[in-house]
Structures are given as C-alpha cells and as structure tokens.
Design brief:
about 120 residues, alpha+beta, CPE0013-like fold, 2 domains, four-stranded antiparallel beta sheet, three-stranded antiparallel beta sheet, 2 helices
C-alpha cells in the first residue's frame, strides 16, 4: 500500500506491506510517527470526524474528540443527523457520548446562529 503520511508537515511517501506472519513493514518514513501511521492505516484505519448539524436558527459545528474506526464513519454521521434538536447548546458540550460504541464523544466546536 502506498500512502502519504499526514502526521507531520513533511508528508513522507510511505510503502506499507503486511507480511505473511502478520507483521507490518513501513518504509519511506523520516520519523517514528510515520511508521506508526503506516501500521495503523494497514491494520486499523481511524479518522477524526468533523461535521455540521442544522438547527432551528442556524448550525452547530461538531467534531469527535478522538479518532474512530474508518468503517464507522458513515454510522457516526447518521447518528449525528438523527440527534433530536435540543433547547440549548454550548461550545465544548457533548452532543453524543460514546457515539456508535467507539468510545469517542461528538463535541460541539462552534455555534452559528442566523440573525434575522
């Protein structure tokens, strides 16, 4: 698998190989973070999810507080969409705890109220 590392600004070109014994070899990295990223992408890719949810008078910006398994990406987005509207929101507040069983919380990062 060919990847570009996103753990730092260098953007190393990684070659990641899963060996017959189940180990993973990463080459092309200039630091240990690149090797860690390559192994994770091969064995258990994860993503931090950011989204926006429409509310009655505007929108709220959201983010998971930690990366979630890539295969849960669309499940998390669906869970965000299906959260019923609340009376009030606060920046830093948790919209969904342990979203989709991932041990990650969906946190409110910004509130945009439309002025009429």
């Amino acid at each position: 698998m060919e990847l570009t590392c996103i753990r730092c600004p260098i953007g190393c070109s990684l070659t990641v190989t899963k060996n017959a014994d189940g180990t993973v070899t990463v080459t092309g990295n200039n630091c240990p973070r690149g090797a860690e990223y390559g192994r994770q992408e091969m064995l258990e890719p994860k993503r931090t999810i950011t989204s926006v949810k429409k509310i009655k008078n505007g929108t709220i910006s959201l983010k998971t507080n930690k990366a979630v398994p890539k295969e849960k990406y669309f499940d998390v987005l669906k869970a965000i969409k299906n959260v019923p509207e609340k009376r009030s929101y606060s920046v830093g507040g948790v919209l969904i705890k342990n979203v989709c069983g991932t041990n990650a919380d969906v946190v409110i990062t910004n509130i945009n109220i439309e002025k009429f």
